[in-house]
Design a protein that fits this description.
alpha+beta; 1 helix; FHA domain-containing protein
Length: about 150
């Protein structure tokens, strides 16, 4: 075997080995990415909570049967700077706020005149919510959904 054929053979082997390591490294990265995205999707599904409008009086902002996704704090009231403005005569300017902490729903009455009700009971301050709990703000009824 001549010297140039030997050099070509050695470089060919080195090229195949480097190519093998590059492909192996790329597959490991893709596997971790796919594995990590499945965990993220599971977590996202568990946190996809919301509110369903059960009764909405004559409020043009909320229609019966509509869904309100909850991803951050939501404030309810008659004033324009609330997240959800409710034009109901029994709703205060700043009526209540709803938020999640560690994947748990809480509702807090923020000093409303007519009160906030969960499952028919008037709440004082902050209250933990469960799936299928009904919230009444004035004439508006919302249901916690998963």
């Amino acid at each position: 075997m001549s010297f140039s054929k030997l050099i070509n053979f050695v470089f060919g082997i080195i090229f195949v080995v480097i190519l093998y390591f590059i492909i192996t490294y790329a597959l490991k990265i893709m596997y971790k990415d796919v594995k990590g995205s499945k965990k993220g999707k599971r977590r996202q599904i568990r946190q996809a909570h919301g509110l369903e409008v059960i009764k909405s009086s004559s409020n043009e902002n909320l229609k019966q049967g509509s869904i309100i996704p909850v991803r951050e704090t939501i404030s309810f009231g008659r004033k324009e700077d609330n997240s959800i403005v409710l034009n109901d005569e029994f709703i205060s300017g700043y009526h209540a706020k709803l938020y999640t902490r560690n994947n748990v729903f809480f509702i807090e009455d923020v000093g409303s005149t007519n009160g906030t009700f969960v499952n028919g009971s008037k709440i004082e301050g902050r209250t933990k919510l469960n799936i299928n709990d009904e919230i009444r703000l004035g004439n508006i009824v919302l249901k916690v959904i998963d």
